[in-house]
Design goal:
The protein is an alpha+beta fold. The protein is built from 25 helices and 9 strands. A 7-stranded mixed β-sheet has the order 4-5-6-3-7-9-8. Strands 1-2 form a two-stranded antiparallel sheet. Strand 5 and strand 6 form a beta hairpin. Helix 7 packs parallel to helix 9, helix 9 packs antiparallel against helix 17 and helix 22 crosses helix 23. 43% of the residues are buried.
């Protein structure tokens, strides 16, 4: 078989792998997940508003930080605008960018593995990415972290390939800059990763012909980095991060202070000595190290993942069990012949969880930068096993993979959408659909803001005009002393539960009220509304029509 035929066959194999990855990431995308959760809803509202008005949903002109997303960076919102324009403010519209990021990662890990190791390793890495439990889960939600991961990996590939293409300095810098403006953990990750990447690639770089491009790339990245930092300190970007990191959580602070005071009181060491052993630095260091090491635990990587059904709907781990074996074999097999590349991948894995450890325990979004090197090392392991042509080992490996993949598929597509629907603000979708169906039958329709994310869900599902959303976000509507967001005859707000029945009874006209199950005890006449798991998720009350 000649080289041209081999090349064609490899392209066919790669296209097939990408096609399988596309199917796994898009099958039942409108039903699994069953609805849009809070971040997806606010991204959709902001992107739709930018598309139609040039302003975000609060009326800010072309912002770089979106306040309705608790200081959300701009990357995912702006890059979602074309897809919102094509598909409308829908699940596919907000998730298309994440889906394409997953498809892009399949191709990128093929190219990086091929560049660093071999064509065979590249094809295996592409296959592993296509079937990756972690990446399939990230692809099926509108996760900013997934786009940031793709941009960081694309920047890495371009930098590795920069030797004969100096323009890649600029393109690589742009990719890393977009990652900075997409997900906050990359503001920490890239501080450590970029020096590692530079040290790995510098031997292949030629500054004689590309010095100007290199300097231009550094300037571009510095500009985007400073702009990102300015958004952090002056525009409220990453407000949520400032509230949830280990140094700001009040409960943790109190426990640490109590522990330090107790140990200082009972120790027999002199106080000036004991202060060196019992202090906040030592205790926070322990918390950080514990958080960091949990990212490498079997519980996170293989058994349960981060236990958040939103990030990991199958809740069965981020990697296949067999991946751990492959990674070990890959490192051992290639250590002597590709030590520099193996060290690069190992240090990449070690650096990736640092931002996560500052916040909390392992997190499928914040820790996702670990995924590419783990997949490449796993691919190297299988590549080494294939070279031995041990059919018994390959048979066992195949059976283990198939069993775990089948369990993953059945839970992802057929169980999780029902079992974990509330993690995706499903009651808000049901509420919105009921309202759109019966909107003309009532003078008033009241939606309790105790329904998770209903204030964002209804404008999205009902496709409310962005200018109406901006107006209601700026100026609320008053009925009998209660503030609401008003969209025609639909009112979204908080009615004090103790006075709920009285408020509804004093209305002049027909009404429909929909609230959470917590308001059942405050209503005299009501009906329960079931979700897709056949349990009651909402309560409604209406006047005689």
């Amino acid at each position: 078989m000649n080289n041209q035929t081999l090349s064609v066959n490899r392209k066919i194999i790669l296209i097939t792998i990408i096609l399988l990855g596309f199917i796994l990431r898009t099958a039942y995308i409108n039903n699994s997940p069953p609805s849009l959760y809070g971040d997806e809803l606010t991204i959709t509202l902001d992107a739709y508003s930018l598309l139609k008005t040039g302003h975000d949903q609060l009326g800010n002109l072309l912002p770089l930080t979106f306040q309705m997303g608790a200081g959300r960076p701009a990357g995912y919102v702006y890059l979602s605008v074309p897809f919102i324009a094509i598909f409308g403010p829908t699940a596919l519209g907000v998730r298309a960018l994440s889906i394409l990021s997953g498809i892009g990662l399949i191709l990128l890990l093929y190219l990086i593995s091929k560049e660093l190791f071999s064509e065979k390793a590249g094809l295996i890495a592409a296959t592993f990415t296509s079937f990756s439990l972690w990446d399939i889960s990230l692809s099926r939600g509108g996760f900013e972290a997934h786009l940031a991961l793709f941009m960081a990996v694309l920047g890495t590939f371009l930098f590795i390939k920069v030797k004969n293409r100096p323009i890649f300095y600029l393109l690589s810098a742009l990719c890393f800059g977009i990652a900075l403006h997409t997900y906050p953990t990359y503001k920490v990750s890239l501080i450590f990763f970029l020096p590692l990447l530079f040290m790995f690639v510098k031997g292949k770089m030629s500054f004689v012909t590309s010095k100007k491009y290199f300097i231009a790339g550094v300037v571009l990245l510095a500009f985007l980095g400073i702009l990102s930092i300015s958004q952090t300190f002056f525009a409220g970007s990453e407000n949520r991060f400032s509230q949830i990191n280990i140094f700001s959580q009040q409960k943790s602070k109190d426990l640490i202070e109590q522990k330090i005071n107790f140990e200082r009181q009972i120790t027999s060491l002199p106080q000036f000595v004991s202060n060196y052993f019992h202090n906040k630095g030592v205790e926070y260091g322990k918390v950080f190290i514990e958080n960091y090491l949990q990212n490498f635990s079997l519980d996170f990587l293989v058994l349960h993942g981060d236990r958040n059904p939103r990030h990991n709907m199958a809740t069965i781990g981020e990697l296949y069990l067999i991946d751990i074996f492959f990674i070990f074999v890959g490192v051992i097999s290639y250590w002597s012949i590709k030590r520099r590349a193996i060290l690069f991948l190992l240090f990449w894995i070690m650096l990736a969880p640092l931002p996560t450890a500052i916040v909390d325990l392992p997190h499928a979004l914040r820790s996702a930068f670990m995924l590419p090197p783990l997949i490449i090392l796993s691919a190297l392991g299988l590549s080494a096993i294939l070279s031995k042509n041990n059919k018994r080992v390959l048979f066992i490996v195949g059976i283990l993979f198939i069993v775990e993949f089948v369990f993953f598929v059945q839970k992802l597509y057929f169980l999780a959408p029902f079992e974990y629907n509330k993690f995706w603000s499903y009651p808000a979708k049901v509420t919105s659909e009921l309202v759109m169906q019966d909107r003309k039958k009532y003078k008033y329709i009241f939606l309790s803001d105790e329904i998770d994310n209903i204030e964002f869900a209804y404008p999205v599902y009902a496709r409310i005009k962005p200018m109406s959303v901006i107006t209601q976000n700026k100026n609320s509507f008053d009925i009998n002393g209660v503030k609401f967001k008003k969209f025609d005859n639909v009112y979204i707000g908080h009615i004090p539960t103790g006075d709920l029945q009285g408020f509804l009874g004093n209305l002049n006209g027909t009404y429909l009220y929909i609230g959470s199950m917590d308001t059942v005890k405050y209503l005299k006449n009501y009906q329960l509304i079931e979700g897709n798991d056949h349990t009651s998720i909402l309560v409604k009350s209406e006047s005689s029509i």
